[in-house]
Design goal:
The structure holds 3 protein chains of 3 kinds. Chain B is mainly α. Chain B is built from 6 helices and no strands. Chain C has one domain. In chain C, helix 2 (31-52) runs antiparallel to helix 3. The chains are: A mainly alpha, B mainly alpha, C mainly alpha.
Chain lengths: 447, 186, 88
């Protein structure tokens, strides 16, 4: 860490980790409700707990992206952050807004539009927070060095804000509603978030492997080119059955199939860089998370996405547990892992220490990854059985759900393992211990 | 080669900006998928495809093929002129290529309006959906190529010209495959 | 860079191929004319790569990539056509 203002990232990382734990806890709650339906039925209905599970996920990932940007933009731009104070104010505003939303959900205050349940004033607060953030980092980049990484990161972050505006647009026509509804989270995860992910990954590769910036930037351009080419029209795979014209089935099928390409390129990229770099960076855990991120994103977003993206297949599998399997592995692989990777890399630098708790952190990696992988398989099998019984044989929904209970129990078990892994990860990051502390003037290895 | 095009590994070996080739290769994948989709759909709906395909004018498609191929020749000559440092001639050839490209679009528009007048729209059936999607995507690329050409006429560095013309040739290449698949083979 | 003559020759050849495939398709709908149409298309694609894009000077890796692409397209299209004939 070279710039004092990078420290502000710590607020965001801490906030993100708190929400991460909350997200997983609520995941356990809804996983339990699925197998024991009367659990908390009066106090915390399934729909409310699920709302918190999904909202907390998005908010903590965003918070992690904010923290990552505050950490890496000063370093890339080679200048202090435009305003540290603004960044701190923005953090509290965001955290209080998120907390207020969650508390509101518990009292059944929400707008009911799936995933965009936030009351209007929360949405407006998010817009304000986003503007504060964008102003801050854009001013920082403008006064500093412009690199491919800062440019693409900025493009991605601006995209996040622009597409979020569509959450405010709620047309009465249900088809129009759905068309633009997909523009928020799905043009995020299949578009601009990929830019954020790729640029953070590129930053980590430069720092961890020592490969020339020039090489990394070229890969970055190729990856984001592929991501935007496939991702924007690929979002058409959400338009199959919502009342849009039939040609979306062709557009969505063809372009979303290609969405595997940027994720595959990221796998090749990270492994090539590590292989070419050949440098032994002391932060092995950060490297593990970076490599894991590209691999799990490829499987979760790429392969599991492709499984049900072709229109004729999706006709059968739509909205079954296959979707849930894909959703869990994709979010974990792409966006959870990139956040943990940058946190694992940045936190020792911010705290001015040697990399700490590496072993514990890597245990966290393996346990969480195993948990999510097992969950993915359980849900995939559940989805296949469900598709067959419900869509092919035409059995009733609830009747089929009975048949899936074994898989749901397995999912709950996997969720418990995931939770244990998450506790290890969070512990390894936020409890650095005292033993390895080095002086404030310590050299930063391989930065 | 300029700095921008060096050290891109295998992509450096192709003419023009390597990122254009990322786009071109992606386009080939997309159109390849559409060609396959079209062929398989024809097996699944032989009667529909036969009845609809008869409505297409093969001569119009042939004329458009020739327009694009000639435009491609002009574009290739523009690269030659630029390579010899003759910017004026390069611009003239690019202008010629663009005019022929516009001619292609004119024919295409006439074809679309003729089909629309006969009541064949993008949602009529699978054949027409694919016809409009494939030729429409292709036409959109012709438009994009013309836009790039306009920029390159304005800033005709060798790399820019090569980049633009590589894209233009790929638009040709897709069309010479699309033409027999959609118009000729029955 | 290919000479103007090379380009012109490629252009002439492609125009002739277009005419040929058009004539074959209009004259009859036999398997031969199908093969001619598709063959002419693939040959034109090769000429575009070879002469217009000057890829005959590029390393064999790229030639293989484009070659495989064209062969795959031709096989899929003709394969589907053939299956269609049998099923009918």
């Amino acid at each position: 860490m070279k710039y004092d203002s990078q420290k502000v990232a710590l607020y965001y990382f801490a906030g993100a980790l708190v929400l991460f734990v909350a997200q997983i806890l609520f995941g356990l709650v809804i996983g339990t409700i699925v197998v024991l339906p009367n659990t908390l039925s009066e106090l915390l209905p399934f729909n409310i707990a699920r709302m918190i599970h999904t909202n907390a996920l998005i908010v903590w990932l965003l918070m992690g992206f904010f923290g990552a940007s505050y950490y890496l933009i000063p370093e890339e731009a080679e200048t202090e952050l435009y305003s540290t104070r603004l960044a701190i104010v923005q953090f509290w505003l965001f955290l209080i807004g998120a907390a207020a939303a969650v508390v509101g959900y518990l009292f059944h205050i929400h707008e009911g539009r799936e995933f965009l349940e936030q009351p209007l004033w929360i949405k407006l607060a998010i817009v304000v927070v986003a503007l504060m953030f964008l102003f801050n980092i854009t001013m920082t980049v403008l006064k500093g060095r412009k690199t491919a990484i800062t440019n693409i990161l900025l493009l991605g972050l601006w995209g996040i804000a622009v597409f979020f505006l569509f959450s405010l647009y709620n047309p009465a026509n249900l088809i129009m509603d759905k068309i633009f509804w997909w523009w928020v989270v799905h043009l995020w995860v299949e578009g601009v978030w990929e830019l954020v992910m790729a640029s953070i990954l590129a930053f980590l590769m430069i720092k961890l492997t020592g490969v020339d910036r020039e090489v990394v930037e070229k890969w970055l351009y190729v990856i984001i080119g592929l991501a935007l080419f496939s991702g924007i029209l690929g979002t058409g795979h959400h338009y199959y059955w919502i009342g849009t014209p039939g040609y979306w089935q062709w557009i969505g099928s063809v372009f979303s199939t290609l969405e595997v390409a940027p994720f595959f390129a990221m796998v090749v990229f990270t492994f090539m860089m590590v292989w070419k770099g050949g440098r032994a960076h002391p932060n092995k855990a950060a490297l593990l998370w970076s490599l894991g991120c590209s691999v799990f994103a490829f499987f979760g977003a790429g392969v599991w996405g492709f499984l049900h993206t072709l229109a004729p297949v999706n006709y059968i599998t739509h909205g079954t547990q296959i979707t849930a399997a894909h959703g869990h592995l994709a979010f974990y692989g792409a966006y959870v892992m990139i956040n943990i990777a940058i946190m694992t890399y940045a936190m020792p630098n911010i705290l001015k220490r040697e990399p700490y708790n590496q072993l514990l952190n890597m245990w966290g990696f393996w346990i969480t990854s195993s948990g999510v992988t097992f969950m993915t398989f359980a849900l995939t099998f559940a989805g296949v059985v469900q598709s067959h019984l419900q869509r092919v044989l035409g059995m009733g929904f609830m009747e089929v759900q009975e048949q899936l209970s074994l898989f749901y129990w397995m999912r709950l078990g996997a969720g418990l393992a995931t939770f244990i892994g998450v506790v290890l990860i969070v512990w390894s990051l936020v409890v650095p211990g005292k033993a390895k502390q080095v002086g404030r003037v310590a050299a930063q290895p391989a930065e | 080669m300029s700095d921008d095009t060096e050290n891109w590994g295998a992509l450096s070996e192709l003419p023009g900006n390597p990122l254009m080739w990322v786009l071109i290769l992606s386009e080939l994948m997309v159109f390849g998928a559409f060609f396959a989709a079209f062929s398989v759909s024809r097996v699944l709906h032989p009667a529909m495809f036969l009845a609809d395909q008869v409505r297409l004018d093969r001569l119009v498609g042939g004329v458009n093929t020739m327009l694009l191929l000639t435009s491609g020749l002009a574009a290739a000559l523009a690269v030659n002129a630029r390579g010899m440092g003759d910017i004026r001639r390069c611009r003239l050839w690019l202008g010629g290529a663009a005019l022929l490209g516009l001619g292609f679009l004119g024919v295409k528009l006439a074809e679309y309006s003729d089909k629309a007048a006969q009541g064949f729209g993008i949602e009529t059936d699978t054949f027409w959906t694919l016809f409009y999607l494939m030729t429409g995507f292709h036409a959109a690329h012709v438009v994009l190529g013309l836009v790039i050409m306009a920029i390159v006429v304005w800033k005709p560095s060798l790399e820019n010209v090569e980049t633009c013309v590589s894209f233009w040739h790929m638009v040709d290449l897709i069309w010479v495959l699309l033409y027999p698949i959609v118009y000729l083979i029955r | 860079m290919p000479s103007a003559f090379t380009l012109l020759r490629a252009w002439g050849l492609m125009m002739a191929l277009t005419g040929l495939s058009l004539w074959a398709a209009i004259s009859d709908q036999s398997i031969a004319s199908t093969l001619a149409a598709m063959g002419a298309g693939v040959l034109k694609a090769v000429l575009i790569l070879w002469a217009y894009l000057n890829l005959r000077r590029s390393p064999s890796g790229w030639k293989a990539v484009f070659g495989v692409f064209l062969i795959a397209i031709a096989l899929i299209v003709l394969g589907a056509f053939w299956v269609g004939k049998i099923v009918k």
